[in-house]
Amino acid sequence: MTIWLTPTLLCYGIAFVLFAIDFSSRIQRVTGYAIGALAAGTVFHALDLVSRGVQDGNIPVGNFPQALSFLAWITALAGLILIVRFRVAVIGVLVAPSVLIALGASGAMAGEAGKLPRALRSVWLPVHVTLAFAGEALFVLAATVSLVYLFQESRLKAHRPMLSGQGAMPSLEKLDRINYLLLGWGFVLLTLAILSGALWAQHTWGHFWSWEPRESWSLVTWLLYAGLLESRLTVGWRGRRAATLTIFVFAVLVGSFVGVSLLYPGKHGGTFG
Amino acid sequence: MTQSLLITGVNHRTAAVEIRERLAFGDDELVPALARLKLVAPSVSEAALISTCNRVEMIAVAGEPEAAAKELIGFLAAERHVEPSLFADCVYRLDGREAARHLFRVATSLDSMVIGEPQILGQLKDAYMRAAEAETVGIVLHRAFHRAFSVAKKVRERTLIGHGTVSVSSAAVNLAKQIFDSFEKKTVLLMGAGEMAEITARQLMRLGVESLLITNRTFDRAVELARALSGTAVPFDNYRPYLKIADVVIGSVTASRPLLTREDFETILHERKYRPMFLIDLGVPRNFHQALNELDNVYLYNIDDLAAVTVDSREEREREAQKAETIVEVELESFWRWLSGLELVPTIKDIRANVERLREAELRRHRAWLAALPADQRAHIEALSRGIINKILHQILSELRRNNGVVEGIYAAEVARRLLGSELVSPAIKPARVRIDDEPED
User: Fold this and answer.
1) Radius of gyration of chain B (CA)
2) What pTM did the predictor assign?
3) d(CA B66, CA A66)
4) pLDDT in the model for residue A237
5) pLDDT at A150 over 60
6) Which site among A164, A178, A179 would you substitute to test the B interface, given the most B Cβ atoms closer than 10 Å to its Cβ?
7) Nearby residues of A100 by Cβ (< 8 Å), 6 or more positions away
8) Is the Cβ pair A164, B175 closer than 8 Å?
9) Nearest-angstrom CA–CA distance, B290 and B280
10) Where residue B185 sits, what CATH number does that domain have?
11) How far off is chain A from B292, nearest CA to CA, in Å?
12) Residues A163-182: pLDDT tens digits?
C-alpha cells in the first residue's frame, strides 16, 4: 500500500457519484467533471502502481491483490478512453464503481507483497501480464457495455424509452458496435497473451504448455470468446443475444480468474515457490 | 426622450389561424418589406419581423412607442393588403422590459403552442438575419437577439426543454435515434401514404437516411410522394423483398387485418442477419401484428405507444418550463441593466458627476497654495475651473442630446460614457463592453 491509494479511491468514488448524477439528471452537464475525476483516479492509480513497481523491481503483480489492482487500473484507463472516444458517459456509472470496488478489495486484502521468484523476474513478465490484463480489461468493458445494452433494449421493448436526456443513452446500434469492437480487440490481446506466455514458458522451463489450471482456463475462455465472435459473423447473433452471451462468457472468465488465483497455488496463483 | 424596445403583432393566442395566415410573410419577402418599413415608419429606429405559422410579430426600437406601434401596425396592414380593423382586436403590444421578456420567451419556445418545439429558435435566427440584411437592426436589437439566442441555449443546457418530444412523428424519430447510431446507410420503407407517415419519413430523411422506399396501394400516389421526398416507389404487390433491406418500416395502410405477421418476419430477420428493425405502425387498424415486438432486434411501436411516449415528456416539459422561466428572468435582469445603461439621462448624470469629481480632486491637490490666496481670488479660480469644464461638457452633452432618439445617439452616448464616465476613474478600466458581434457573456 502506498500513499497514492487514498487519493485514487477518492477520485474513483467522486467519479462514480458524478457519473451517477450525470446519468440520473438526464441533462449532460457534469459529464466533463465525471470524466476528469476518473482521469485523476487513473493518474493517482498509475503513481501507486509505479511506486510499488519500483519497490519490487518489476511490474507489481506479485500476489492476487496486486494483480487485481493492476487489472483495475487497465480497466479504468480503457474505460476512460472508451467513454471519451465514443461519448458513452453512461458506461462510467458501471466502470467507476467496479474499479472502486476492485481497488478497495485489493487494498483490504493487501498483505505481504509476495516477492517474485527469480525465475519469473524477466522482461517477459510485463509483456505477458500487460497483454493478458489488457485483454481482460476489454472483456470487463464488453460485459459492462452489454449490461447497458440489455437495460436500454428492455426499455425500448417495453415502450418505456429514456428519451429526455439528449444523448444520455447511447443507441443500441452503437452499444452493439462497441461491444463487438471490445470483444475483437480483447480476443486479439488474449491470443497474444497466451502466445507470449507459451513462449516465456518455453524460454524458462523448456516447454510451451504445462496444462496448469490458469493455462487450461485461458484456453477455455479463448475458445468461448472465439465462439462468441464466430456466432456474430456467421449466424448474425448480435444485439440482445450477443450481449447476454458476452455477460455469460465474462462470468466464466471472472470465475476462472478468481478461482484459479485463490484456489490453485502455482506460477499464476497467489503464492510462488 | 429615450429609446425603448417594443413588440407588436399577433400570435396563436390572440389570433385565429385565418388571420395569422393573411398577415404572414414569406421568407423572401422579409428583406424588401423591412426596407419599405424604414421609409414608412419614421419613429422606428430599429426593427425586425418574425413571421411563422404561429406568430407575426414586429420587434422594434423607438423613442415614442405609441407612434411607432401605430406606424408598425399600419405598415403590416398595408404590406399584407388587410384592413387594420380586421386584426385590430388581436394585436398586442409590449413595451420595454415586457418586450424583452417576450422575445426571450419566444426564443426559448416558452411562448410556443407546444413548449419545447425546436423550430422557433431557427425561425428567430432567420428573422434576425433578414433584418440584419435589410440593415434595420442596430445596437439594441443586435444585443437583444444575441441575448435571446444565448438564453435559449442556456435553457436547452440547463433544463429538459427542447429535449422532449412534441409530436408522434418526432417521438418516432427520437426512438429511431435510440436504436440506430447513424442513418447514413439506412433504408426507410414507407408503406401507405398517410400524412403522419409522410411527416415522419420527412423527419427521418433529415437525419441523412440513405434511401427511402415508398409503396402504396395507389401506385401513382407512391410515385408522387417518391418525387417529393426523393425516394423510390415500389409496387404494392411486390414490396416484401424490400423488407430485407429496410431498417425502419413505417406502416400507414388501411387494411382490415395486419399486413405482416410473425412468420413473415422470422425469415426476413434471418436474411438480414438480425440487424435491428424499427417498425412504426401508424395504421388504424394496425398494420403489423403485435407479436412482432417479441422478436429479437425488432422494435414495434404503434400509434398509441408513440402517443404514450409524448405524454410522458409533456408533463416533464411543464415542470421544466418553470425552471426555464426563472432563467429567462435572470437573463432579462442582466439585459435590462445593460439597456438602461444606454439611456441618456443616467449617462449625462454620470459624466457630469465624474468630471466634477476630477475638478474637485484637482483643486484639493492644490489647496496648499490656494489657501494662501485672498478669498476673492480663490473664488475666481473656482469659477474659472468650473467654467472650463462646463464649456467642454456643454459641447459634448448638447451633441449627445441632439442625437438622442436615433441609433447613432446611442453609440455616441456609449462612447462618451466610456471616455468620460465613472469607469474612467475606476481602478481597472474595463475592456470594450459593447462588441455587438459577440454573444454577451456577462
Assistant:
1) 31
2) 0.63
3) 80
4) 82
5) yes
6) A164
7) A9, A12, A13, A16
8) no
9) 11
10) 3.40.50.720
11) 11
12) 555 446 889 999 999 999 99
Percent with pLDDT over 70 in chain B: 88
Cα separation, B31 vs B79, whole angstroms: 13
Catalytic residue among B53, B78, B179, B383: B53
- CA distances (Å), origin A83, targets A74, A87, B207: 14, 5, 24
Does residue B138 sit in the same domain as residue B178? no
Positions of chain B with pLDDT under 50: 1, 424-442
Structural domain including B366 reads: 343-424
Do residues B56 and B140 both lie within one domain? yes
Which of residues A268 and A159 earns the better pLDDT score?
A159
Measure CA of the first residue to CA of the last residue in chain A; give whole Å.
23
Let me know whether B15 and B119 are in one domain: yes
Please state the domain count of chain B. 3
Angle at A71 between CA A68 and CA A76, to 5 degrees: 125
Taking the mean position of all CA atoms in its chain, how far away is CA B258? 43
Regarding whether B277 and B220 lie in a shared domain, the answer is: yes
Separation between Cα atoms, residue A33 and residue A143, nearest integer Å:
25
Pick the last residue of a domain from B309, B325, B354: B309
Q: Which of B171, B273, B293 sits opposite A157 (nearest CB)?
A: B293
Q: Phi first, then psi: give them for residue B9, nearest 5 degrees.
A: 155, -160
- Rounded to whole angstroms, how far apart are CA atoms B212 and A94? 39
Choice between A201 and B213, residue whose per-residue pLDDT is larger: B213
Tell me how far apart the 2 most distant CA atoms of chain A are, in Å.
61
- For residue B24 the three cell numbers come to 404572414
- The pLDDT of A17-46, averaged and rounded, is 87
Distance from CA of A21 to the nearest CA of B (A): 14
The closest CB to that of B178, out of A156, A239, A241, belongs to: A156
The structural domains of chain A, with segments of one domain joined by +, span 1-115, 117-273
Residues 8-27 of A with CB under 8 A from B: 26-27
**Count of positions (residues) in chain A:** 273
Whether A56 has a pLDDT exceeding 50, the answer reads yes
Q: Hey, is A115 helix, strand or coil?
A: coil
The answer to whether residues B152 and B280 belong to one domain is no
Domain stop point among B107, B137, B163: B163
Residue A68 has pLDDT above 80, yes or no: yes
Task: Note the ipTM here.
Answer: 0.84
